[in-house]
Amino acid sequence: MKANPAGFLFDLDGVFYTGGKAIPGGKETLHILDALELPYRFITNTTTRPASALVEKLAGFGIETTADHIISAPVAAAHYLEGLGKPRCRLVLDPSLKEDFGAVELDDESPEYIVLGDIGTTWNYALMDSLFAQVMDGAKLIALHKGRFWKTQDGLRLDIGAFVAGLEYATGTEATIMGKPSEGFFQMAVESLGLSPEQVAVVGDDIDSDVGGAQAAGLQGLLVRTGKYREDYAARSPVEPDGVIDSIEALPQWLNL
Known about the structure:
With about 260 residues, the protein is an alpha/beta fold. It folds into two domains: about 5-45 and about 180-255, 3-Layer(aba) Sandwich (Rossmann fold); about 85-175, 3-Layer(aba) Sandwich (Rossmann fold). The protein has nine helices and 15 strands. The protein has helices at about 25-35, 50-60, 75-85, 125-135, 160-170, 185-195, 205-215, 230-235, 250-255, and strands spanning about 5-10, 15-20, 20, 40-45, 70, 90, 105, 115, 140-145, 150, 155-160, 175, 200-205, 220-225, 245. The chain has a six-stranded parallel β-sheet, with helices on both faces. It has a five-stranded parallel β-sheet with strand order 7-6-8-9-12, with no helix packed on it. Helix 7 (about 205-215) links the parallel strand 13 (about 200-205) and strand 14 (about 220-225). Helix 4 (about 125-135) packs across helix 5 (about 160-170). The two termini are about 15 Å apart.
């Protein structure tokens, strides 16, 4: 990187943990940043847990934080919709996420907006056809993210980007993306730090969404070789990270802290 950043945005899954297993060194790295009074936030495209549940999960790994330090795609989408005057929405999401959308009006029959998130194995033709029909009738698509794949304890799994892209192709429309790599998402996270983009580094395991998205928004991007990282995939990407480290544990040494 050009210079040591004044603040950090950390991806969660693949950086601090994979599934229910912690990646070593995360807690210790954050203690060093706290001691040096370097601010940070956690940013995530996770669409299976509300912010409150992510706080609990991190606490299970010894990392203490609060919901206002977690910038998630669902929270970003909820803020966006509230800014539109709380339109009628169909939420195609994990039911637990509805607490993040408490202020929107729910309408599965004639929505103005359809919000797409991760619903696991419940995707099917009937659901896709229903969503297709509503978009053709004028509903607008919002995708919490457009990830291609993600890492589980059982290996790589297809992510929701395939379903988002399918609906875009069939309807001839383009979804509004709320999470990474959306520039607006990174801007919101940077503003919460009270810094300018060039002062902030994103640390993530996805060279396209985390690193590429960060750089496109004017931030620095640091890639970790954990989580979904694959050497051959990273080598094929046109994105050139500002730095690459083995894991979150190596960040202080890499920064000469």
